[in-house]
Amino acid sequence: MKHFHLIRLPENDHAEFKREMQKAFQTGYEAQFGPCEKPVLPEEDIDQSLYAGGAIAYVARQDGAMAGGAVVRIDPESRYNHLELLFVRVGVQNRGTGQAIWNAIEELHPETEVWETCTPYFEKRNIHFYVNRCGFQIVEFFHPGHKLPEAEEYHGGMTDEAGRYFFRFIKKMK
User: What is the pLDDT of residues 108-131, one digit of tens each?
Assistant: First the structure.
């Protein structure tokens, strides 16, 4: 990908990073369920990931403009790391940006033995991306009868149905 860079998120880019991430999540949700007045990904939820222990935020820049980003949580002892959030800015999807972000993250963290992430059940593009493009496997399905662990509970601004159904993925590295 030409003129693509994934760098640590500078402090002065936090506001734009959060705004673009919220817009990407909102757009995906509304494409499936229609307009939603509440933010699907509230700023508090982004902050919880951004400022968690071991968290590293990255911004993707293409030709100098923000193209997306990600937040990972790294545990150097267990080498079991988490992809907390990944987004591609609205208007630049379907150009390989998400794949470039993920590939760069793997290169930046070669010590990782296992990656883990979750995504809502309705995000078919995410499911395709994680399984078919990035090599993750679905290992668990959360629903009202099999709830997310309390520490990972997330509903954001999503409706009851959408906010309670998630897939958990892992990727074992070689």
Answer: 999 999 999 998 888 888 999 999
